[in-house]
Amino acid sequence: MPYVKWMLNSEDLTPEDEMPVGRNVLELSSVRESANYTCVAMSSLGMIEAVAQITVKSLPKPPGTPVVTETTATSVTITWDSGNPDPVTYYIIQYRAKSPDSKYETVDDITTTRYSIGGLYPNTEYEIRVSAVNTIGQGPPSEPVETRTGEQAPASPPRNVRAKILPQNSMVVQWEEPEEPNGQIKGYRVYYTMDDSQPMSLWHIHNVQDSILTTIQSLVPEETYAIRVLAFTSVGDGPFSEAVSVKVQQGVPGQPSKFQVGAVSDTSIELTWEPAYDKEGIVRYELRYAEGKFSTLTKKDFPPRRSYVVEGLRPNTEYRFSLAAISNNGIGAFTNEISERTLQANVPKNFTVKWVTKTTVVLAWKFSESRSPYKCTIEYNRQKMDVDARQLKMFITGLRPNTTYEFRVTCQESVDGGPRHRVVARTAPHILVKKPKLDIYAEPENILTMSFPPVSTKDVKNFYVVVVPLKTTTGTVKNLKNPDEMDIEELLREVILKRRSRRQLAQLDQRNPYITACFKQLPTSFTVGSDHYLSSCENKPLEPGQEYVFFLLAELSATVGKMFATSPHTDTVKTPEMVVDPLPVETGDGLIWVVGPVLAVVFIIGIVISILLLKNKPDSRKRKESEPRTKCLLNNADIMPHHPTDPVEMRRINFQTPGMMNHPPIPISELAEHTELLKANDNLKLSQEYESIDPGQQFTWEHSNLEVNKPKNRYANVIAYDHTRVILAPLEGMLGSDYINSNYIDGYRKQNAYIATQGPLPETFGDFWRMVWEQRTATVVMMTRLEEKSRIKCDQYWPSRGTETYGMTQVTLLDTIELATFCVRTFSLHKNGSSEKREVRQFQFTAWPDHGVPEYPTPFLAFLRRVKTCNPPDAGPIIAHCSAGVGRTGCFIVIDAMLERIKHEKTVDIYGHVTLMRSQRNYMVQTEDQYSFIHDALLEAVACGNTEVAARSLYSYIQKLAQVESGEHVTGMELEFKRLANSKAHTSRFISANLPCNNAGVGRTGVFITLSIVLERMRYEGVVDIFQTVKMLRTQRPAMVQTEDEYQFCYHAAL
């Protein structure tokens, strides 16, 4: 009987009972290896064979265990056997340092079986494994090999070297291990000499094994020795430490350590240091400093402290400083000299013509705040006048109409006359020759009709009717100013108040001149005092018994500054006094109908006054909540009161200042127009608004000034107000242990929403983490890098890897994610004596430039959204810090609070919130640039919205964008693409890029770069934001992702 079977070489693969009978299909299953398989058919007629070559495709097998063939201090070379008979596309190497928390680093696309891994740490044990990749995918890894990198000479010197004199002409020298030992330290060499100008080969050498202190004897009395220390490994010597000095005199203090420069201004330099040893009996310090290298030294003595501000210095001048401590036994060794240059002087700049009238020119300039007078001289038309630059503007009067004048301004910066400025202005033509006429009998009571003479309106942009009350509050009559010499900026400020409520407008002093009507075209007549709004001006009723004059103001087109023409004053007119009708005297029953209502009114007024007094009386319950603003948080750190009332609005009600009254909240619909107005004329109004903010320095800071707490302040002038400072739980027996340079800051509708603090110092690391624990904080925001422009801005208060203990808190680094503009670190916190563990995230914004503010707010807004998304709703205050904890920190808090406000009220109150913050911590929002950046960030947030979408929701979001928006004729995708055109970078930044020869490389290239960024972000963050990615690229090169089709392709490609 015929049969068919499968065979592999001589092995039968088909069981006898499965051989087909009467069928022409025979299946071979469970094929596990690539080979030639033979199908054999046999019958009485003979045998037929057919051979099938089968290739089995599967994931590759693990390569053989890697073999280390060579090691250096920073690299390891390995080889391995492929372990796979089938082709391998490439190999992947994974390696990590042998520590519990380390993660594998990956090197892929390796096409050989030998590879050198570089960039490793010296003297570190590594684990390395290899896996193969074919067309199916990546196979399992090989068995790991363990190896240790070689040693190097230390890369850094011993730290914190100090010396102290002992009896019998000897001294003890101490130090700490180098930060980068690069191997096992075999020992140290201490070099010392009485003449530090000698080469190091002539210094005395003292060898030390297995110790970080040593005693040197047989020193020469009354001599000063310089000391330097190096560490060495089996490979070689490390670098020398900086020289420290010590004087061989029994009982004198050691040389101060960490002597460095702090804050610098144009006339002062702050110096900071630490004593060599505690309890040295220092009674005072002697500071020596001089200008340049060859000037005579100046000496200053002052009581013990750890910082000192040298004042009265010359601007833009280099000074050198050295310091020594003095005890009752004498003066110790001076530190090595350090040098620092003072900043450029605060000189006036940006001299411009602010406005002109027919007889007056108003010059304006910028000048930073200064306590000292600063003289400038203005010359014109053979006349000369002096002005103090702090005035910021100057009225030059008595000029001729329609005449060009040249003004030369000299500022006395130095003996050579200082910088000179030239400003040209032309006075206005005399177009309003006749005064308006009044018909005082045409209307009853306090309403007047004014008629205007015909005026040529060819170059007139606006007409304003100005009311000038003559009587003051005391009833005296003011001296009448010529309309040309009035402060027109003050008059026009009221026009800007169209955003205000009638109640706010009514609060303005009606005895000051004001604008009562605005016209594009001048009518023949106008009624004054009708109590109606006309355009953006309120035609307020005239005050009874007041004397008035009126004039017409015209705003003309001008090429430089603003130009105004004024008419002469009208004749003086007095409004009628208020007439009060006497009550008729009744007798009998009629008297009841008079007295009764009067008494009722008096009774009602009394009740209203009582309610107001009770409302304003401090409530004991509220007082108990506000008094332990710090104390209560000690014992109940998890209680964060959330008040339905906004703290800023409460401040506006209870602590209204003229500045807050003049700067009300701005609707977001008018934010763009408001910001444009502030930035007009070289940020003139923004500068004035920023400078008018209450500095809020009337509060006490006694705890910051305590001697025990002064070393905990990074900057001597940035302190913590007593009434808002964060109070730590005191440690038994430790004076000042409740102090940290931190303040609570209110947010939108939430008290103590934030804590603003300085960048932690090494001596305050424990306090910082104690504050994080006690306040139940889940989010720390860091707005600075550790070092900027070679200056320490903040010390690293977290472990680089593994676990570190700071005071009573163990901090373990769990994860680090480094992105283009910020870094996210996740820590696990455990407090000694507690079984609880908590997770805290630190968000570090790394894109803030060394000087100024970010050019575009887009990266900062993305950072802020990430912070808000990750902060749990039940967490304690967000702790924010930069270096001093006032500038960038203030920006972060204001922008975050205003974004919350926008969600609920559709308004922003930047001015009010900065004012509130400055009453809680000094210097909040430190510069005008930062204040401007806050406006830019909020404007972009309002204009662009939040286009970030979770990756899992991308499909439904694209479907939504494909639909036509209600009230529109285009899809959401088209609207989003058009919105990109609204945020353009200034063309001056792209002069070369906009040339025809360079206009390629923005279409498909833009799509490629966009997708590269989007896909990488999706991988790490799980979110997609095509709009902001393209917007950010366009700030670096115009027109990236050129067409709507390309923009739409980015969305679909990201799916």
From TrEMBL:
<keyword id="KW-0904">Protein phosphatase</keyword>
<dbReference type="InterPro" id="IPR029021">
    <property type="entry name" value="Prot-tyrosine_phosphatase-like"/>
</dbReference>
<dbReference type="InterPro" id="IPR000242">
    <property type="entry name" value="PTP_cat"/>
</dbReference>
<dbReference type="GO" id="GO:0016020">
    <property type="term" value="C:membrane"/>
</dbReference>
<feature type="domain" description="Fibronectin type-III">
    <location>
        <begin position="157"/>
        <end position="251"/>
    </location>
</feature>
<keyword id="KW-1133">Transmembrane helix</keyword>
<dbReference type="InterPro" id="IPR036179">
    <property type="entry name" value="Ig-like_dom_sf"/>
</dbReference>
<keyword id="KW-0325">Glycoprotein</keyword>
<feature type="domain" description="Tyrosine-protein phosphatase">
    <location>
        <begin position="686"/>
        <end position="941"/>
    </location>
</feature>
<keyword id="KW-0675">Receptor</keyword>
<keyword id="KW-0812">Transmembrane</keyword>
<feature type="domain" description="Fibronectin type-III">
    <location>
        <begin position="62"/>
        <end position="152"/>
    </location>
</feature>
<dbReference type="InterPro" id="IPR000387">
    <property type="entry name" value="Tyr_Pase_dom"/>
</dbReference>
<dbReference type="InterPro" id="IPR003595">
    <property type="entry name" value="Tyr_Pase_cat"/>
</dbReference>
<dbReference type="InterPro" id="IPR050713">
    <property type="entry name" value="RTP_Phos/Ushers"/>
</dbReference>
<feature type="transmembrane region" description="Helical">
    <location>
        <begin position="591"/>
        <end position="614"/>
    </location>
</feature>
<dbReference type="GO" id="GO:0004725">
    <property type="term" value="F:protein tyrosine phosphatase activity"/>
</dbReference>
<keyword id="KW-1015">Disulfide bond</keyword>
<comment type="similarity">
    <text>Belongs to the protein-tyrosine phosphatase family. Receptor class 2A subfamily.</text>
</comment>
<dbReference type="InterPro" id="IPR003961">
    <property type="entry name" value="FN3_dom"/>
</dbReference>
<feature type="domain" description="Fibronectin type-III">
    <location>
        <begin position="347"/>
        <end position="431"/>
    </location>
</feature>
<keyword id="KW-0378">Hydrolase</keyword>
<feature type="domain" description="Tyrosine-protein phosphatase">
    <location>
        <begin position="997"/>
        <end position="1055"/>
    </location>
</feature>
<dbReference type="InterPro" id="IPR013783">
    <property type="entry name" value="Ig-like_fold"/>
</dbReference>
<protein>
    <recommendedName>
        <fullName>protein-tyrosine-phosphatase</fullName>
        <ecNumber>3.1.3.48</ecNumber>
    </recommendedName>
</protein>
<feature type="region of interest" description="Disordered">
    <location>
        <begin position="137"/>
        <end position="159"/>
    </location>
</feature>
<keyword id="KW-0393">Immunoglobulin domain</keyword>
<dbReference type="Pfam" id="PF00041">
    <property type="entry name" value="fn3"/>
</dbReference>
<dbReference type="InterPro" id="IPR036116">
    <property type="entry name" value="FN3_sf"/>
</dbReference>
<keyword id="KW-0677">Repeat</keyword>
<keyword id="KW-0472">Membrane</keyword>
<dbReference type="Pfam" id="PF00102">
    <property type="entry name" value="Y_phosphatase"/>
</dbReference>
<feature type="domain" description="Fibronectin type-III">
    <location>
        <begin position="255"/>
        <end position="345"/>
    </location>
</feature>
<keyword id="KW-0732">Signal</keyword>
<feature type="domain" description="Tyrosine specific protein phosphatases">
    <location>
        <begin position="999"/>
        <end position="1048"/>
    </location>
</feature>
<feature type="domain" description="Tyrosine specific protein phosphatases">
    <location>
        <begin position="861"/>
        <end position="932"/>
    </location>
</feature>
